[in-house]
Write a structure and sequence with these properties.
- It is a single chain.
- This protein is mostly beta strands.
- It has a single domain, classed as Porin, CATH 2.40.160.
- It is 12% helix and 54% strand.
- It contains 3 helices and 18 strands.
- The strands form 2 sheets. The chain has a 16-stranded antiparallel beta barrel with strand order 1-2-3-4-5-6-7-8-9-10-11-12-13-14-15-18. Strands 16-17 form a two-stranded antiparallel sheet.
- β4 and β5 form a beta hairpin.
- The protein is globular and about 65 Å long.
Length: 345
C-alpha cells in the first residue's frame, strides 16, 4: 500500500474531497428544491346552525350562499395541488361537500379551480382555465373569510370564471387584471357555472395599495354589467375596516349594496368582527316595490394551531315578510346562531 508523504498530494486529495462534497450537496439541494415545487394543501369545515327566532321551522335560512342547513352539517373539503416551475405552473383545486356543490354547481368531479399559468415577465402573468372570481370581498373557501356565513353581495355575483386573464404589476402599488371569459349561467342567487353557448364576458381589475375597482361585462347575456369596489384600511395595529360595494344592471334589472367589515384583533389568536350589509334588488318595472335587506353578522374567531373556531350571531331584516316566527306567522326578520370549525393543513 502506497504511503502519501507529499504535502501537495495531501492538499490535492483534501481539495478533491471538498469538491465532491460540494457537488453532492448542490445536487441534494437541487433535488430538494425540485421536490418542493409540487405542494399540496387542504381545508375542511363543519358547523352547527340554529334559528333563534323560529327554532321549530328548520327550513328557514338567510337568502345567501352556504351554511344554510340547521343542526350539525358539513361544509366543504378541498385538496389543492400546485406545481411551480421556473416560469410556468398549474393549480388543481378539487372540492367536495354541500358548500362545494353550491359553489361549482355540481360540476363533474367538483372542480373548484383548474388552471395553468405562465410568468411571461417579472410583472406579467397569463392564466388560462377555471379560476375563482376577482370580484368582491369574500371568497368560496371559508378559511379566507372572517365571517363564516356569506354576504348578499357575494352570493349575487359570479363565483368563478373560465377563460384567460392577464395580471400586470404596473408598479409597487398599482396592478391591473384584464380577462376574457365564458359567460357563466349564474343569476342573482344562483351558483350554476355552465357556460352560455356562444357568449363571452370581459373583466378588469385596477388595484392600488389594497384598494380594488372591479368591472364585469357580458352585454345582456346574463349579469350584464357589474362594477364592484373592494378594499380596506388598517385604522390601527389591531383594528381593520373592510369595505365592499357593488352595482349590477342587466336591462334595468339587477342589484346594489354595500357592506362594512370592522374587525378588532384582541390577541394573536382571537378577533371579533362585524359585517353590516345593506342590499337591494330591482326588476326595472315601474310601479313595483324593490325588496331590500339589512343584515348584521357578529363573528368571533379563535385560532388554535391550525384549527379556527367561529361562533356567529346573524340578524337578517327584510323589507318584505319572507320569514316565519315561532308561531308560524309571517315576519320580516330572522335571527340565527352558527358555530363553525375550520381546519387548514
Amino acid at each position: 500500500m502506497k504511503m502519501i508523504t507529499n504535502t501537495k498530494e495531501v492538499k490535492n486529495i483534501v481539495a478533491s474531497a471538498l469538491m465532491l462534497a460540494t457537488i453532492t450537496n448542490t445536487f441534494a439541494q437541487e433535488e430538494t428544491k425540485e421536490e418542493k415545487k409540487l405542494t399540496f394543501s387542504s381545508t375542511i369545515d363543519v358547523y352547527y346552525r340554529t334559528n333563534l327566532s323560529s327554532t321549530d321551522i328548520e327550513s328557514q335560512a338567510p337568502n345567501t350562499s352556504f351554511a344554510n342547513e340547521t343542526g350539525f352539517a358539513l361544509g366543504m373539503a378541498n385538496i389543492i395541488a400546485s406545481y411551480e416551475g421556473e416560469k410556468t405552473g398549474a393549480v388543481a383545486d378539487i372540492a367536495y361537500g354541500p358548500r362545494a356543490v353550491d359553489a361549482v354547481g355540481g360540476d363533474a368531479l367538483n372542480i373548484n379551480q383548474l388552471y395553468t399559468y405562465w410568468n411571461v415577465s417579472k410583472g406579467t402573468t397569463l392564466t388560462l382555465g377555471r379560476f375563482n372570481t376577482f370580484l368582491g370581498y369574500e371568497v368560496i373557501s371559508p378559511s379566507a373569510n372572517f365571517n363564516y356565513s356569506t354576504s348578499y353581495l357575494f352570493s349575487s355575483g359570479p363565483f368563478s370564471h373560465i377563460g384567460l386573464k392577464a395580471d400586470f404589476a404596473l408598479s409597487e402599488d398599482f396592478n391591473l387584471i384584464l380577462a376574457v371569459m365564458n359567460v357563466t349561467d349564474e343569476n342573482f342567487n344562483g351558483t350554476s357555472t355552465s357556460s352560455v353557448p356562444g357568449a363571452y364576458s370581459l373583466g378588469a381589475q385596477l388595484g392600488y395599495s389594497g384598494q380594488f375597482l372591479n368591472l364585469y361585462y357580458d352585454g345582456k347575456a346574463k349579469l350584464g354589467f357589474e362594477v364592484d369596489y373592494t378594499g380596506g384600511f388598517n385604522l390601527s395595529n389591531s383594528f381593520f375596516l373592510g369595505i365592499n360595494a357593488a352595482y349590477a344592471d342587466n336591462n334595468g334589472a339587477g342589484f346594489s349594496g354595500i357592506a362594512l367589515y370592522p374587525q378588532l384583533a384582541t390577541s394573536d389568536s382571537f378577533s371579533l368582527g362585524l359585517r353590516g350589509e345593506y342590499f337591494s334588488t330591482f326588476d326595472g318595472i315601474s310601479g313595483t316595490d324593490d325588496p331590500s335587506v339589512f343584515a348584521a353578522t357578529l363573528t368571533a374567531s379563535y385560532t388554535l394551531e391550525k384549527l379556527i373556531i367561529k361562533p356567529e350571531i346573524r340578524l337578517d331584516s327584510n323589507s318584505e315578510e319572507i320569514f316565519f316566527d315561532s308561531d308560524g306567522a309571517a315576519t320580516k326578520s330572522l335571527s340565527s346562531f352558527t358555530i363553525a370549525a375550520i381546519y387548514t393543513f
